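EI: anyone free to look at a 475-residue chain?
SC: sure, send it
EI:
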Amino acid sequence: MNKVLKTDICVIGAGSGGLSVAAGAVQMGANVVLVEKGRMGGDCLNTGCVPSKALLAAAHAAENARTANRFGVATGPIEINFAQAIEHVHSVISGIAPHDSVERFEELGCIVIQAEAHFTSPDTLVAGDKTIRAKRFVIATGSRAAVPPIPGLETVPYFTNENIFENRICPEHLIIIGGGPIGLEMAQAHQQLGAKVTIVEMMTILPKDDPDMVSVVRDAIKDSDITLYENSKTREIHPAGDLIRVIIEHDGIEITLEGSHLLLATGRRPNVENLGLEEAGVAFERTGISVDTRLRTSNRKIFAIGDVTGGLQFTHMAGYDAGIVIRNALFRLPAKVDHSAVPWVTYTHPEVAQVGMTEAAARARHGDAIRVVTWDYAENDRARAEDDTTGFIKVITTPKGRILGAGIVGRQAGELIGLWSLAISRKMKIGAIAGMIAPYPTLGELSKRVAGAWYTPGLFSEKTRKIVRFLLRFG
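SC: here you go
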């Protein structure tokens, strides 16, 4: 007979969101059971954010060595050990893993069960040989790589983000299907580490980002000798000797590509299968579990957070969701999600970062009653000193200066966007940014400069000049 565990909170999934709920709840005095069938740390640590950024770091180091002569530094021909770059990736994962480990969470006071789990009733979960009854459940099972139904795909080997970081041989020619963040980041990483790369995108790259900023990234991708096919449909795939043949349709013309390796980067699919959601009374679709603004499912004792809800699929959103759940489940506070200031970043070079509304979204909601200001990296002294002046910052406000959104494309855009996320979340006006003191010379001055540009039309107008001339008459 299964042993029955009674607990306050049972968390299913030990990714970013689930670990945050478990750690927070147990340290606040709740009894917590944490269930994970796979690796602790989930997608972010093992196959997503951490390994991709580690590989990009290695790739950017190679590119910096290639281009060091612009500073008068001669490096000569560089040699790339691709396997060692992958070892760097795994060393980074290993360094972070103890923070997410079974041992750490057991030390915190959680009961950790490493087994597949499924609901058998609205308040009962079975995981391995354990039956768990909890006052509240949190489903944080994440998502997985979506595999499109391309004819012939099953006849060839292919990578997704879930296994590409196990490859220790640099691809001779990597064909990537999908031009979203994963596809573009892996394209640049592999190209800079020595691979020939081709990207095939059904629509346009980075469709959720500001088109003006995407244009800058697109130019950088093409300038790096990556071949890019946008608005192209992948018709079929099949083996061609030791190669993989991909037939696409581009501008009405059939084109045959042949590569040594294939990467699918065609989106994510929530992990909702085999959880017994029907038995739990939890409404869901193929696109994810339905939740209200308090992240409660149709069974009010069960919450769902992160990718499994089919919403914004970012690690930082899973962590944010965890805070909402803790306030609701532990403190009975009616905390609700607010997505008005959610930042996101694609870590290409240049990086592209966005928070709040894009210009298109703001115009759709407010019409022409918005103001848009921009400032170029080329006008920033730090960017000039580092010879990296590609990009700009764009801010969208109401006529009275309330910040609706901001986007940055350029060096360290992901680091710079945080200020604008804070400003939007606190409903600040652009004057607060214009009035701050930014250290010189920093890229952070871009934010102050673009905010100052918002006032330029009024400050240097004929009306202002008349006022100044009038006041100067009095000494």
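EI: The domain at 343-459 is CATH 3.30.390.30 (Enolase-like; domain 1).
SC: 👍
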